[in-house]
Design goal:
This is GntR family transcriptional regulator. InterPro entries: GntR_C, TF_FadR/GntR_C, Tscrpt_reg_HTH_GntR, WH-like_DNA-bd_sf, WH_DNA-bd_sf. Keywords: DNA-binding, Transcription, Transcription regulation. It is a single chain. A hairpin with a 3-residue loop joins strand 2 and strand 3. The chain folds into 2 domains: about 80 residues, Orthogonal Bundle (Arc Repressor Mutant, subunit A); about 140 residues, Up-down Bundle (Four Helix Bundle (Hemerythrin (Met), subunit A)). Helices cover about 70% and strands about 5% of the residues. The protein is built from 9 helices and 3 strands. It is mainly alpha-helical. Helix 8 runs antiparallel to helix 9. The protein has a 3-stranded antiparallel β-sheet.
Amino acid sequence: MAVNKNPLSSIETLGPIPAHLARSVIEESLRNAILDGRLPYGTALRQQALAALFGVSRMPVREALRQLESQGLLKVVQYKGAVVASLVEDDSLETYELRFLLEAQALRLSLPLLSDEDFKTASDCIDSLEAETDFEKIGTLNRLFHQALYSKAPNKKLLALIENGLVEEERFLRFNLEKMGVGKLCQDDHRALLRHAKARDVEGCIKELEQHLQRGVNAITRYLDSQKLKQL
């Protein structure tokens, strides 16, 4: 009879964790395992099991799980506790609408303050995206490109909300980019965004962002439709 492998066994720990770093180390380890699929959708994460794995008390585990829940990577389910959230929820289209409002505002605040170094960071991300074939790295590079354009916005709470949306998109891209078939198209969008940003054309940049995010909406719609067909 086959033995079910414990998903937590895929997480490597490197000895005792200093108390002041426990929460961040646990959060980062679990985030990476969720994003790369080692902790699949529906996996229940028990506080006691995680505390034993990392050799810490339950307090930093609880704090890490709360952070991951706020990022949309976990959700609390009755009788199961914290479980890994699905790649795409039914409200994902609403999330994209909200993302546009937030990211457009970030562009308004950040774009006039961006430096040549910021533009180079964004350009380097595009160059790496053009050559990258690892979908895990593609998801990360996509997030870093957008963050480079928003980085100078002085509203830190706004940037935190945007990061949550980008992390959610990163997770989706890692698992679905190949099926979406929009890799090269995305780079055309990114280059257009960067071109308007360098020209300090805020409204042109926002228009490109809207078109870029609409492609994400279209991909999400196709994904949700395919999932509904599988359930018929």
